[in-house]
Structures are given as C-alpha cells and as structure tokens.
Amino acid sequence: MNPAFPFPAITGHDNAKKAILCALASDEIRTLLITGERGTAKSTLARSIRTLVAGKQVLTVPQNITYDRLLGTVDLETAVSCGKIRLTPGILEQGNCQILYADDINLMDEGIVQNLLSAAENGRFSLEREGFSRSIATRFLLVATMDPDEGELTPGQMDRFDLCVRLDPIDDEEKRGEIVRRHLRFNQAPDEFSRGFSPAAKDLEEKLVSARERLPYVSIPDGHAGLISSLCLELGVAGQRGDLAVARAAKALAALDGRDEVVFDDIKLAALLALDHRRREIPDSPPPPLPPQDNKDPDKENDQEPEPPDPETPPRQDPPQQPETADRPEQTPPAPPPPAEQVFEIGSTFDVIRYLDEKSKKATSRQKSGRRTRVLSVDSSGHYRSFRLPDKNRNDIAVDATLRAAAPYQRIRERNGLAISVKKPDLREKVREKKVAHTILFLVDASGSMGVRRRMVEVKGAILSLLVDAYQKRDRIGLMIFRGTGARLLLPPTRSSDIAARMLRTIPTGGMTPLTTGLSEAHQVLTRGKFAGAGENKSIVILTDGRVNVPVNNGPPYHELSDLARDIAGCGIRFVVVDTESGFPRLNRARALAGDLEAPCLRLEDLKNRGLAASVQDFIYNTR
Fold first, then answer.
1. Nearest 5 degrees, angle CA 472-CA 476-CA 481?
2. pLDDT class for 446, splitting at 50, 70, 90?
3. Which helix (H) or strand (E) holds 112?
C-alpha cells in the first residue's frame, strides 16, 4: 500500500479538516462528503485519514464494485465440498468498526450508492441470495468525494450525508508554493517526510482519543437547541436529519476543544458543515396583482416594435373615409417597418432537477453510454447487476450464479474427475444494465414576435441550464433557430456548455417566422448524417408560439406546417412543444402543432425556469 500524505501536512482547507476530526471523534457521525473542483486535494485529504487512525483500516470501495463484492456472496468452496451454504463477507461487513472510502461517489452505480448510504445510516444491511435471507449488522464511517462538475447526487442522497464540505481552489501564491514544495519532498522521500509531521499527527491522535472519552458528557443548553431548529427552518432544511447533524457536529467540536458544553461558535461552525448541502431556496411571496389594463398586452405596450403580421388573420376593416377633396391630395399610408433585430442577454440559470426513470428499463442495442436513462443491455456491455435463466445471450454466463446453483448437488452427482459438475438447468446468464445518452435539439423561435414578448431572456436561461446538466449526464444538446426566411443550426449537438453559452449570447431576434422550414431542418439534422444512427434517444424541443408566416411551397403556411408535422410524427424522434404565446386572446396554435406531432405541449408563462426544465426532462427522458 502506498504511503498516505500526512494529515497535518495538508495546507489550508481548515473547515474540511474540522469536519474530518468531528467524524472521527463521534460515532454518531457516520457519513462525510468532500466536494470540490478537480485538483483541490479531495482525494489526498480523504486518504490522509489513515495517518490519524492507527487502530483502524481505511477500506477503499472500488468505483466498479459489484453487488456480491459489496454485500457478500456464497462461499463456493464450502458449498461444493460440503453442500452447505456459508457466506463470504463483502466490504460492508468487512468495514465493521472501520472506515470506508468512496472516491467519485457520484460516478458509482445508483444501487451501490443507495446500499452504502443505507448501511451507514441504519447500521445494518440485508443480504438475499438463492434460498436464504440474512440481516447483517455493521457500523462504519463512510468518507466520500465528488466533483460536482462531473454530475450531482440526488437531493435524497445528499441529505443522507451528515456533513458535507466544499474545497475551494487556493488562490494565495505563498500557499500554492508551499503545496508544491511539500509534495515534491513527499514524492522523493515519503517516509522521511512523514516522520517530520509525526509529532503533529500524534497530537491529533491524542486529541481524538480525549474527545471520544469526553463526548458522552457534552451537553447542549436548551436555548442553543432551539437555535439549531430555528436556523434549520430559516434555511428551508427539510426533515430532521439537518437538526440532528448540527447537534452532533456541535458536540464533537466542543469535545475536541476540551469543553463539556456547546457554545454559540460550535453551532455556527457545525451549521456550516451540516446544512449547506441541505438548504433549499425559499420562494419569495408572490407580487401584488397588477391593476387592470383594459385587456391590453403589457409586453406589446412597453415594446415599440410591431409584431409581424399574421397571414391568416383578416385585415382590419377601417371605417369608410370621406371622399378626397381637391385641397386634400391623396396620400398612401406608409407600410409598417419590419421588426428590428435585437440580441437579448441570457436569463438566470438554475439547478436542473435530476430525472432518472427506474420504470423505463428495456433491452436496447447500439446505444451510446451516458448517465441519464437506465436500460437493460442486450450484449455483454454494461454493469453486471443480477442474473436470470438463459434466454438469448448464452455466451454471457454468470459463473458465480451458475456455480451457486450447482453447488448443493455436488455430493450426489458424478463428477468424472471434474472439480464441480454443472448441468444445463444450473446455467444462469448475466443481466447487465447501463445508462445511455440522449441527443436533444432545441428549435427556438427567434422571430420578431419573440422579441416583442421578450421571451428570449427566459428561454436562453432555460437552455443554458439544460446544457450544463447535459454535460454532467453526458448528453448532447444542439441549438437551432428560425427567423427571417430560413433556419440556422447555431450549435450542432455537443456536450460543451462553454461553447453553448457563447452561442446563446449572440442569438439575434427579429424578422418573420419560418416555423415550417425550421421544423423540417431540425428533423433532417437528427435523421441524416452523423446523428442519424439509432445509438441514442433523440428529441426535439420546440419553443414557439405556433405562428408561421413564411410558406415553403407558396401554399397556406399553416396547412404546410400541419402536413409536415403529421408526416414526421412517430419517426423515432420525441417532440416536446413549449408554447411561448402570451396575451389575449389565445390562438393555441402551438397546442395544435403539438397535436399534429403527437407531442406534449407546455405553456412557458405558467412555468418557472426550474419547472420548465423538469417538465421538459420528464417528457424527454421518460423512455416509451
């Protein structure tokens, strides 16, 4: 085993060090999460724990660990030789009274993470295999790390971590230089370097021993207990886990300082360690209703740009004018100017609600890996999750399950020199599971009507937020706009949120509305060329008010749009229509388009940004 970097030698990150010491001092603190960008010493800090716990082991949970290795499995040697069932312990049982370390826990299998957190919280786990079920007690400290840029855990999983600290990059030049010097010395002579910090490490060990002895006698005054609850309510912390975590961390901090009573400063630091990852945004009170506007559209009233004419709307009949007289020469009224081109800023971004449809499992082939939708694999790729009786994939035999099925019969079977006799009824095949990526193309109305209603600010914020989420989930998202007389693919499907942000800022808004051309071009992008394969789930999200005033073949624009939508519906691409229409009366043309596309229709004005993103994902990632 490679030597660990000494805990006292780590520069900075004082709050993270406090959190680790609290977790080591208190048996009631069972889970600790360290987050931060790449290169902020998350793994170094977590691995350095072994330099403080001479009497305990730090067991690493591999990222690709199987359920049998985590939970335990049947001892095949005993089953074959004696015909009896005996268990081989997994890491959860081996970690009893020890420390488990999970690096990049956000990249682990969902079920593995759930089992780790449940066992750490409950102090036991259930192991079920063929013919038996057992509940096994275990108590351990789980220390995990993750980079949020590589994907988030669910809010429920985050809430199960008692303490969570974030490591920020160190900007101080002197500290960064000291980090480089210490690591160079450690790499050249790790033993000599560690001996130089052994006195400090010994002091910390003695401090932890003293804190563990003192902790049962540490008390929290009643007034401070009420302060903890009021603080959690103020931050919008749901449930009681946050309150209990703050109390446990505050007691541990007092014990580490050699005190028998919690003080205000303990609660202040404990709240920072235990509540930041649990806090929720509390919505502001709704604004007072606006005074009546005589059925006038305020967006149109505040904007000086006229809305492009609607070809299907009959022209307004002006009252008959008096005949022109000789002293009033005939004048031709000027044509209304076309909408001016504008470029709107990107609206505020938001955290996209993570969506994982556990009910959408289906066998698929040639699907590219991702982190979004969980599906059953039909080949030998993917994570080995369970087993079943052989079906089609007879080459992917689950050896462990096959041997377990054959083991009880070895005493009555003729082996003919074989170590174990396996019959056809014993065969089991692997059930593999993987997550696949999505390709999502946003088709955005950038015509003059969007500028009049100033919808582009909100739309840009929603698109950018989904792009960031797509990077974390390894999806690809593209952006196409339609305006003037045609459509333009601004961003081919990509996983780069940085490129997308630059493209979003420069989207021009103004001109006519060629919706039919835009829909046709978007369909061709995902059905021809490099994106035409069946390797990913493909979706087109259309943000429009349903207006169209540019024909393709000199026919009625709305008839052409309806015919095209019916032709491409059911082509293997999922469509979602987001209605951006505002004001009264409502024409509901976007809803009619959604009906032709056999797609769901969402109304932008009735949804907040967070609701918009979640609703779009519900339809996109809910595999049919």
1. 125
2. confident
3. helix 110-122
